[in-house]
Amino acid sequence: MPESIKSLKFVYDYAKSLFEKRKDNHFEESMKNSLFEKEETAIKVFVHAVTLLNWASKKTINPDADNKEIAINLDPESTAPLHEQLLDLFKVAFEAYEEARNKFKEEDLQTTFKSPFGREMTYEDWFGFIIHHTIGHIYQTFRLQAIYLRHKV
């Protein structure tokens, strides 16, 4: 199993554990509100991270995929607890990444392609970008939520 998949799995498991511990401690409030004016909310950062993970993974498999067809979002009609909805989104995106990454052998990672952003890059750099972006924003979510909880509750 590629290291990037192991890393992402670790972050998913950590998010699941952390959300489970925080679910009854003003979870929705801490995800939907920010402490400071013009600061992004934790939920917005989290959804951004996992939607880009899903989008980039799907575009790796099919560069011509329609953005609207591969978009994932929270369902405003859902009655499931927010922490479960967020984990479900993360799981969908994680599975998309796993599928995309597993299509490449180690020797294929040095192949250059034109990224969806229009820049030539190797698949190794592309997968690195996806992982660093996702994990960075997921941990930013945890931090924003923790700061909110520490100051507001």
What does this structure look like?
The protein is mostly helical and 153 residues long. Helices cover 65% and strands 4% of the residues. It contains six helices and two strands. A two-stranded antiparallel ribbon has the order 1-2. α1 runs antiparallel to α5, α1 packs parallel to α6 (123-152) and α3 packs parallel to α5 (82-101). The longest helix has 30 residues, at 123-152. It is elongated and about 50 Å long. The relative contact order is 0.21. The mean pLDDT is 93.
The radius of gyration computed from the alpha-carbon positions, rounded to a whole number of angstroms, is 16 Å
Largest sheet: 2 strands, antiparallel
Class by alpha and beta content: mainly alpha
The proportion of residues in beta strands is: under 5%
Tally of contiguous helical segments: 6
Order of helices and strands: HHHHHEEH
